[in-house]
User: What shape does this take?
Amino acid sequence: MLKMFHALVVMLMVLPMPAVAGFTFDQVVQKAKTLAEKPYEAPPPVSKFMREISYEAYQGIRFNPDRSLWKESQSNFQVMFIAPGLYYTHPVTLNVIEAEGPRPLAFKKTDFVFADPEVEKRVPADVGFAGFKLTFPLNKKNEQNQFLVFAGASYFRGVGKDNAFGISGRGLAVDTGLPSGEIFPSFTEFWLVRPSPEAKEMVVYGLLDSPSITGAYQFTIFPGSPTKLKVRTFLFPRKNIQLLGIAPLTSMFFYGKNTPRPTGEWRLEVHDSDGLQIHDGISGEWLWRPLLNPETLEMDFFSTDNVLGFGLLQREGKFSSYEDLGAHYEKRPSAWVEPQGDWRQGKVVLVQLPTPDETNDNIVAFWTPKTPPVQGTPLELAYDVGFGKPDIPQNPMGMAINTFIGDGNRIGGGRVPQSYRIIIDFAGGPLSKLPANAPVNGQVTALEEGEILEHFVEYHEQIKGWRLSILAKPAPKKPLHLRAFLNTDTTALTETWTYRLPPNNRILAKEKE
Assistant: This one.
């Protein structure tokens, strides 16, 4: 057994299981356990036509909102369905749990509107569902807004009030970023517990399967500002797993303030998230890592002891930073995970992949236990996932609101070859209560044999905060790896900013021959 989960297992076992007409979460857990004891069988794929359908043709298949589940009762919660095809290569089984008990939901082709009659003719009448969308009067009374979508592998996307869809959560990540290749577990069946028409929360159960692990999930869903999911999961490994990702988040970072702008791009920034936040349990440290779009895959491991929270945030919320009337990146939600119970020792893992454009999700963050899971040893975990504004972590410290990086070998930079000028703006928290002449100091550390050439702090009137300027030089052929925070005397005023810039980047100007 994994001792690290013992206390949490005991806690979960005494919690009551929601029950409706004899159906309980215990039954989903038993299904996952039984499934794990059998050889893995991949779900049957949809027809070749649906798998190879063009993007335009698939976009022309739309669910009719007037056919939403529970619309007839004017329920706060209603359900829209998603047809399989294109990226969604296999159907999932959907059930609804009502007063009489559970019943399967049947796919009805007439619930969908087809832009192309030829596509409509070729879509099978029993093609099934790829997933579902939950709606709720999130922004306006008597107006149904999509706020949570379950579709594709174990993905789910959520938004809070006034957000636009962006970052995704996942049920599980397996071997993400490893040379052996990532395994993508999939939700294969869902049970939607019908709420009362006036309910402000609802419950969804999910059954997850993969070649290496199965799982039972209970999502208790609270739409709002933020939208929150209380997650309980029972996991059953089929085999030993090298890198198990708990509560994974997947996002996109193309470029931002801390990276060069790609040739030809007119927008100042393009990203769904701009940084990783971690709140460690033992030290109490709040850590901030700005994201990158690296030239090659980068993996970072942040050791934690009873982690209190982690997430991918979209701190930059000004339209002027993006100027994109279509994508509205300033409205993309931040996502924050809060473990329930003592998760003991482990690591938050950040995986950053190169992407040539904004169409690829290239950022993944998750927690992994110190002791890898082994075949036959079940895991039980509970955590909350929130989607909303960037203040969702409720970080009380001064925060790094800007990170700029440039060549340190130029006028205004430092005139030191192969060095970097790094600018970090801190604001908020304890900083907001200090006068402009307060004795604020910068604490800067270089790792991996790097060298700090200079650093100084200035009051920044425009943000009512402080600017930390650093001139640093990495060791030859090594990354520039820095940590920094502001303090006064022995009191930390800010979160810890950390940055790791690979040696193969496009920031330094080419030296003249």
In short: Residues 25-36 form the longest helix (12 residues). Residues 309 and 481 are 23 Å apart (CA to CA). The chain has two domains: 3-388, 399-501.
